[in-house]
Amino acid sequence: MELADETVEDWLRHVEIQRVWETPDPELTPEQIADLSSMFLDETRSSGDYRYLNAALKLNDWLREHEPSLLASLELDTRAQAELDRLEAEVGLS
Questions:
Q1: Does residue 1 have a pLDDT over 80?
Q2: What are the pLDDT digits (tens) for 47-78?
Q3: What is the rounded CA–CA span in Å between residue 24 and residue 40?
Q4: DSSP letters along 58-78, please?
Q5: For all residues of the chain together, what is the average pLDDT?
Q6: Are 14 and 6 in contact (CB under 8 A)?
Q7: What's residue 26's pLDDT?
Q8: pTM passes above 0.85
């Protein structure tokens, strides 16, 4: 399954409907799950749509449990925290 075959919105729908963070789609490799998280973080940054951050955080939780070295190597937690910090500032929580 190629990530480029679908739009980011399609992937968000797929991840949420299939609950990929609980039981990954057997066609998705851990690397593709990490790529999805990264794509969702990029979309959060560019669009300000925090649905993507929510999905990225769920995927990061799965990666933390099953592929922690992959999560760390891509700095996905650091990027997600930056988006959380931006959200907090935006809504006046910081």
A1: no
A2: 999 999 999 999 999 999 999 999 889 899 99
A3: 16
A4: HHHHHHHHH-HHHHHHTTHHH
A5: 91
A6: yes
A7: 84
A8: yes
CB 67 within 8 A of CB 34: yes
Closest to 65 in 3D by CA, of 30, 19, 17, 18: 30
Pairwise CA distance, residues 25 & 19, whole Å: 9
CA-based R_g, the chain, Å: 13
Q: Which residue has the tokens 């949420």?
A: 16
- pLDDT score at 94: 66
- Give the C-alpha distances (Å, rounded to integers) separating 86 from 3, 72, 74, 81: 27, 21, 20, 9
Structure tokens at 55: 């999905």
